[in-house]
Amino acid sequence: MTNADLISVSPSGLRPADEVMRLERLGSLHATRLSFVRSLVRQMARQRWQISRVRFDLDANGHGSAIYRLQTPHGRYHGVMFAQPLDDAKRSDRVIAEAWDVTFGLVEGDVDDSLLAQMAANVPLQEAGRQHPRVLVLSRANKSLRNFAHFVDALADGEQPDPAWLTRVGYLYRTTAVYGNGKFGLADFARLLDNPDFRRPFSAQMAGVYLLRHFSIEQVEHLAACRSPDTACPLAPELRRYLGIGNSTGLGMAPFLIHHPQLIAQWITQRETALALALRQVPTETDRLALIALTRRAMRHLDETVTEDAEQTERNAATVAALPDVLTWLASVPLEADIWQQLVEWSARTLPLEAQELINTLLIELYPDQVDALEDQMGVAENLDLEPDMPLMRFRQLVETHYEWALAHDYQSREGAYWFWYRSADKEEPRLGVRHAEPGAEKEMPIAIGPRVAHTHQAVCEFLVEQPRATVVDFLLEHPRHKEVVRRVQSLVKAPYGDIHTNLWHRDMKPMHLLRTKLSFFGASRFDPKSDRWVRITLFQGAPLVEELNAEPQDLAEFDDWSFPLEPHREGEARSLQARSRGVAG
Amino acid sequence: MKVSYNELQGLCRKAFSGVGFEEGDAADAADMVAWMQCHGLHGVEQLNRGLDYLLEESHEARPRVIYQDGDLAVLDGLGHSVLRSISLATELGFAKARARGLSVVKIRRCHNRQLIMGYLSRLAGRGMNITAFWRNAQVPLTEQVVGFRAGHTTPEVRVYSVRDVPEENEPNDGITLVMANHVELLPSLGADHDLDLLAHHPESELLACRQLALEEGIEVDDAIWARLKTLAHRILVESSEASRGGAGAGDNDND
């Protein structure tokens, strides 16, 4: 598809921002084929990236270092892993942790002894270290202790682990932060803008996580072999595939969403454009059958998904309960040219939000030829620039037209101003406090855009009474504190998916929705909230393996078809769907 | 120590917030310092030189318009750093040039003037031709002229001394900005004048500096970095047993 084609579908025909940017809907998004893990795997396969092990220096306890080489047509990179002993008392997924089971970095270019020594001294320290400017990504991960022990035990005995363990917790390691873009001395993202391998947002981070997945497989096999050299066996390919990497995430994602509105707008615009393109296609009977198959797979995936969180369990169940009706609808409705449009209209009337967004995800999945080019449009130059010569009256109209959601709240009420967001002196961890009960509100992070826009709107209205012909810069010279909001509004009326239409102060606001918004673009599955502001998810579960990538797959479409992974059957065992869905005891 | 561009920008933003800057001003000031530093123009040193003044300035400090008409504006910077709110004075020039084709803005009484280049870069990127002029010293009389071509975010900078000092040589701590919407204003030194070129930074040299900064990181003095960190700490809320629950997570994840 040409850029002209892409532009021709945007922005007309896209869903309105007031629908898409509602927090509850954003918190119902699923990963799509445009999510970053999917794009990366396609790119790796298409360009024949090769991954090889150049160092694997682990002791019998699995501690030591390993290096993996990533060779692309354009460059060479190395994933450098450090596995170390960790006292159980120190194993925490929070940013305030100071030690981890594994730390690693993704390096541009070669790793000589000097760089390896520098990394060995700094990567395990994470935030407390100083990282080399050729290190693109810095991350760390903690073990899922139960999975790890079960996998080592089973493989050492020459048996395969029970797949149900991976259905419940889909990984051996979960990352607790994946840093890029200059943090702690790392390479700036600006440096990657001319790099054909990693110029897409978060693609280097996802590549680092993919290498960790491979390391986790090799490490667990190494441990089993060390323990029982005579009986140990490797992990079966279908279980390797079913093994992803976890991620544990908290409130830190919220400031990112607010501080990068143009980037968020870009991501959501591509997703909405993909949906609009899919809805435009005239479906064939093959397309209909493909959608039915995808719906069945997604239904089973969600049915198998286990979480202790009551609300997410209910949401998953509601989606699973709704999908048989979708299948019936798909099987019974005549194959008319606008059947997909009919489907989304019907789903909007009858299905819960998560099910509606699942249908959208599946429709996008059907049309790789039409939508995949959008993955190259995920980046954007971020500049919230002022238009100083804009008549202030025009600015006021823009606020009243595009930020009605922000003006509609009561920010004076106790409920409407219940929360405040702040950074703690404890490693700058983002936290939520109750405004009238906890100290620190005077140091609030100003990420609640709604009250700020309402405040600016009020000041603008008062200024216009005296100076109705004023320009924006006239107003700001008198009231400079409104500069940031003014230029944000001026910029985002051109990128209307940039601001989330909610009051982030409100008592009923659910931070989990913010986390899921960003994680869905990463490609997260198995949403497993641990509280109202803390979630574990899985990346790359079901993704092709390093050995499959190295084999240079011929059928790229089949290679790419790994969304909504299902629990593999144990050899010689045919378990019922219902039994599988119960998973295993915690 | 070596730091990244994003790290420098991020720490400066937090430090300016810690000093009491409004969010937009903190972001602009941080951009100005980081832009200067990565172009080899010593932004951090400039900041360090003016930091004590910044800490003493009133939080309400902002430039005042003394005179303006359609093409021209004169503002009083009240002796404050250009880092605080001076961006709006440049935006006033931008607005006038957009309306009238060419504008002149004179900002009197301001310091840290070098840093204004970081914000002018943004205006140039938005399609404005800009020439900025100021005097760095009276004895010997040295002048600096900075020229941006519309659409180019990197300027050409010249610093020169004037041998033939005029009789009227009162201290001048102002900046003059000329902006043109459609016409290039790139300054060149006249051959007939009695000048000594002290420094010349063509666009290509500054771009090469930026490239190197992205590849190898940016060298920053440890002591200044520590000072910025101390200022940045002001925006953080002290942790308590109760606040540790505010992240919504447990402390141990042995599962």
Automatic annotation (TrEMBL), chain A:
The lineage's top-level taxon is Bacteria
The name on file for this protein is Uncharacterized protein
Native organism is: Halomonas fontilapidosi
Where is the organism placed in the taxonomic lineage, from the top? Bacteria, Pseudomonadati, Pseudomonadota, Gammaproteobacteria, Oceanospirillales
TrEMBL record, chain B:
The molecular function GO annotations come to: oxidoreductase activity
The domain of life for this entry's organism is: Bacteria
Q: Where is the chain membrane-spanning? A: none
Protein's name in the database = LDH2 family malate/lactate/ureidoglycolate dehydrogenase
**Source species:** Halomonas fontilapidosi
